[in-house]
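Narrative of activities, Objective 1.

The group set out to show that a structural description can be obtained from nothing but a protein's sequence at a throughput compatible with the screening campaign. Below is one input-output pair from the validation batch, recorded exactly as produced.
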Amino acid sequence: MKKKHLEMMLEKVEGFKSPKADREQYATPATVASELLHFAFMKGDITDTVYDLGCGSGIFAIGAKLLGAEKVIGFDDDKEVLEIARANAHKLDVDVEFVCSNISDIRGKAHTVVMNPPFGAQKKGSDRPFLRKALELSSVVYSIHNAQSAEFIKKFISPSVITEYKLIDFPIKRTFGFHKKERLVIKVEIYRIEKRTEG
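Output recorded for this entry:
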């Protein structure tokens, strides 16, 4: 599937009905989701089991299934949002499992983890539990972070490594009262992380 076709399919995914600012619940735009997923697909990483951590309304999980992953599970600890994710999967006619779980309680093994963790704008360091858990569950991780986060992330994930990254635009629609603009575009980086162990 071409990236543009995937993006068009993912445009049909509904976002949050009542997003929570403290949890940084911003809908991942279809442009960004298709960029990350197509990147993973071209590297041969959308295969076997794929986990989407903090899946929100399910855009990554659904996209991974559309690209041919055998089994896809999306995890989030917000029950209301998971209902939207299930409705989105039904609308796009894909078989994705959605599980209500806190990030620290997730168990299992996946070939690849895809995620857009909180950037830490509301609560510093809120992406760290996601990175830690992703590397516990899988040997390949695709994750989105604020541009210029690379040095911190390299240190945090060591001995695992960032093998490649892409710098892209992430448009954020006005979602909360404190947003001044109708649309703000920030620069983000998509990292491909490979698990390495010491020794």
